[in-house]
Automatic annotation (TrEMBL):
Organism: Parvularcula maris
Domain of life: Bacteria
Protein name per the record: Biotin-dependent carboxyltransferase family protein
Keyword list, A-Z: ATP-binding, Hydrolase, Nucleotide-binding
An example Gene Ontology molecular-function term: hydrolase activity
């Protein structure tokens, strides 16, 4: 049993995405940074998509009521376990009665906390991930609260204490370059906006959550006849451009259809990085071809497969 002492700004139970239900209006959900989910679970001996805690911006604190093996990844933050400094990306053992404190992040937005066996959570539509807009999955479909008691499933084998290999340690900053491919309504942008999209920086607005990231500064302009489209399919990573010209990057909890022009899509290999964008961060887009996007996905899969398997990446690519 793990007791929540400080849930922070927003902490939810997240696992892998919900695949195969978009035609029923059910979004992906799942960890905004699936790479950090996979790495945290690997430290605990879990399968890549075992339910873990997604901690947004921290701070966070919890008490362990029995001995527990854990792993913490994602946005860099200082950890204190049992009154002693602890490290991310390393298998940790919390003794009964010890408190884990995760201090606020200044780079990146989300921390993943995994526990050996995975957190017990409500399963629906093939995933335990919390979907806040409809209040299902996770713990009663909601964010964690102070005094919540979390149950961890039993892992029927010993966990080897290890650390994330150096080549897999994510590098994060407050400036992001996201690779994108053109989307069906790319040509709805004016020629000047085509250049501006790839040459000028955008900045993440304060309006940021698991549904999407609104980008401010350097608004784009749509051709007059292209300000709206018939409702069409969208997915995490889709970049829409409303009439005001302020792009929106859709997150894991975004709707499955939308009526704004779809101008670009963040490639599968960079979705984890998009999940770490925080308000005020600088975002630039690099336009790549479909072949280059597929090559980037295969390259990332090759790097991570031996450590945490490639399923975490192939799952994200399956429905895009």
């Amino acid at each position: 049993m793990i007791e929540v002492l400080n849930p922070g700004l927003q902490t939810t139970i997240q696992a892998g995405p919900r695949l195969g239900y978009r035609h029923q209006g059910v979004p992906w959900s799942g960890a905004a940074d699936p790479l950090s989910l996979a790495l945290a679970n690997r430290l605990c001996g879990n399968i890549w998509d075992a339910p873990a805690l997604e901690i947004t911006f921290s701070p966070f604190a919890c008490r362990f009521h029995k001995r527990q093996v854990i792993g913490v990844t994602g946005a860099p933050a200082s950890l204190v376990l049992g009154g002693r400094s602890a490290e991310q990306h390393r298998t940790l053992t919390a003794e009964a009665g010890e408190i884990l404190e995760i201090n606020p992040t200044r780079i990146g937005s989300r921390i993943m906390l995994a526990a050996s066996g995975g957190f017990h959570a409500d399963q629906l539509f093939g995933s335990a991930s919390t979907y806040l807009p409809a209040s299902f999955g996770g713990l009663q479909g909601r964010a964690l609260r102070k005094n919540d008691q979390l149950t961890v499933n039993e892992l029927l084998r010993n966990v080897e204490h290890t650390s994330t290999p150096k080549e897999l340690l994510p590098t994060l900053s407050n400036s992001h370059i996201l690779r994108v491919t053109t989307a069906p309504e790319w040509e709805s942008l004016t020629p000047l906006s085509h250049r501006r999209f790839v040459e000028m920086p955008f900045f993440a607005d304060r309006q940021i959550d698991r549904m999407g990231i609104r980008l401010s500064k350097n608004p784009l302009q749509l051709e007059e006849e292209c300000t709206q489209i018939e409702s069409a399919a969208v997915a995490p990573g889709t970049i829409q451009c409303p009439v005001g010209g302020v792009p929106i990057m859709l997150g894991p909890d975004a709707q499955v259809t939308g009526g704004y022009p779809r101008i670009a899509s963040v490639i599968t290999a960079d979705l984890w990085r998009m999940g770490q964008v925080r308000p005020g961060d600088r975002v630039r887009f690099m336009l790549v071809t479909d072949n280059e996007a597929n090559k980037a996905r295969r390259t990332l899969a090759a790097i991570t497969t031996n450590w945490c398997g490639s399923e975490w990446l192939s799952a994200a690519a399956r429905e895009r």
